[in-house]
Amino acid sequence: xxxxxxxxxxxxxxxxxxxxxxxxxxxxxxxxxxxKITRGSAEKFLKSIINSGHESVIEHESITVRFICDxxxxxxxxxxxxxxxxxxxxxxxxxxxxxxxxxKPCFWDSNEDEYKIWYAAMADAEDRYNQLIxxxxxxxxxxxxxxxxxxxxxxxxxxxxxxxxxxxxxxSPAAHPQMRQIMCQLLGMxxxxxxxxxxxxxxxx
Length: 205
Ligand SMILES: Cc1cc2nc3c(=O)[nH]c(=O)nc-3n(C[C@H](O)[C@H](O)[C@H](O)COP(=O)(O)OP(=O)(O)OC[C@H]3O[C@@H](n4cnc5c(N)ncnc54)[C@H](O)[C@@H]3O)c2cc1C
Hints:
The protein is of the alpha+beta class. The chain contains nine helices and six strands. Helices cover 46% and strands 16% of the residues. Bound molecules: flavin-adenine dinucleotide (FAD).
């Protein structure tokens, strides 16, 4: 049984200056105020766009993120509709050959009884999956015994408006702890890389 931590990888190279100036150029089309573009004007313009709720402007730039998390979390993530996804398929991937990985639940320490019970269930699921494949089942049949904790990779592309929406919902204390774990990580990364576009989103504790 291989237990791993979740991971968040931003696939899009994020050049904040380029993204801010592009968005300013597109947004100022609405007001024909391109003559007001100066060094540093983009940040101010974008802040006022976001404050006024004119968020369609920030739909012009997209970000692709790869999440390595569990199947329970990807199942929730794919409910967001204004997004393109490519997800590791349990129909096609044969885990007998490559080994099964499970994502460590963030709410149990490895010395707790709950963790030990969970770990035994993962070991059992892996054994049963391998048995089924050895008996001739296809990966898409054998996957029936795989749990929510199965490691899954999902590439997620959304525009910046949709990311703001997803991050607000999914980094909140109301979200599932494992969803929050990856979304708070992503929000922290985006606050550093694109503060003008993500700084106002609270990282509630
Ligand atoms: C804490 C939490 C608990 C949840 N619990 C459950 C649950 O128990 N059961 C369950 O089934 N789901 C649950 N969900 C999922 C939830 O119902 C949504 O499916 C999910 O959050 C996707 O968000 P969304 O619909 O706001 O937006 P997205 O699909 O991300 O779309 C973004 C926005 O675009 C607009 N939009 C998109 N599509 C349409 C449309 N067809 N018509 C009009 N406007 C549209 C809306 O303004 C929407 O907010 C939960 C979500 C959260 C965050």
